[in-house]
Specification:
4-stranded antiparallel sheet, 13 strands, 2 domains, elongated, 13 helices, 6-stranded mixed sheet, 400 residues, Rossmann fold, alpha/beta
Amino acid sequence: MLDQNKSPATLIDIRSVSRSFPKGSGDDLLVLDKVDLTIRSGEIVGLLGRSGSGKSTLLRIIAGLIAPSSGAATCRGDAIQGPPNGVAMVFQSFALFPWLTVLQNVELGLEALGIDAAERRKRAIAAIDLIGLDGFESAYPKELSGGMRQRVGFARALVVHPDLLLMDEPFSALDVLTAETLRTDLIDLWIEGRLPIKSILMVTHNIEEAVLMCDRVLVFSSNPGRVAAEFKIDLAHPRNRLDPTFRQLVDNLYARMTQRAEPKTPASGGIPGTGVGMVIHHVSSNVLSGLIETLAAAPYSGHADLPVLASNLQLETDARKKLFAEHLLAYVPVMGLIRRVLDERPSHTAPTARFRNELEDYMSEDDADDTLRAIVSWGRYAELFAYDEQSETFSLENPG
């Protein structure tokens, strides 16, 4: 327990950290933009955000695996240049050596520190027992379940007695029940003071997981990654998911994560008050294109009663498609975005996730899925692009 008369020691201090990566076009992709973060002794901090928001990049900067492009990253006051002492990491993918036993995998970090064989074995066995793998010291990773392999990952990180434990979505590769068990076991050990660590920093995209485990949650926005908000979780452990306060925190975090960006000035020809974040509900492209063309033509010239139009929606297919495509590009911003990305990329392809992540910055996941379904249907009909259902990839059929 911390002395109430003393301020918790600062373990990590991140100030105005940005990180860019080069792209094939020669430009740089800004992944993190002027991020500030402080980790103090005695707390579990969560980095919450969508995939691609830069959370894992920030974790790797703190772990000393990559350097920031600008800004300052320090561990206990010293600049982070390579992996700092007292920081260990648990990965999403387990990252075990398949040719080593459980005991050998756990001992590996101690061997790198130059700890003698007897002490390595003693500490490794203690870590294995602590994390609930007693009796599996001689087993190989292939003989273990996913949950057990992740426990080995935890033991390997804890055996070096780090001040700070970094966790990069450590439960996301596990089934729901296994993840819940491991999550609960870890929190129990933390509450009981049995973990040989001072703080935890975890990356997650699971809102309930963040509220269940963390004392503070930083919400990241995307493209580029920035700290959009910070939430303090003042709930005693163990936490009850059905508690009204717990549910309210989850709802508040969800609302913040799906909050729309400030409206931007529409591009020429756009519709005021809309943008990429416009939710689109699916309507048949045949009906829409016929409606547009009929309404534009004589005798209506842009003005007609709907009952009258309903009886006159049969036009030539090619003309209908051309007009429909022109209007999609002019008045549906996300359609224009997809076509622009496909035109600019040398491969003329792009994964659905590229656009889903952007849409989810403006709307709920369900609305993003509905919008993409409509876009795929309309874009195919207008022959603006092709779409492969299996690989979830947009492409140009006839680039150039």
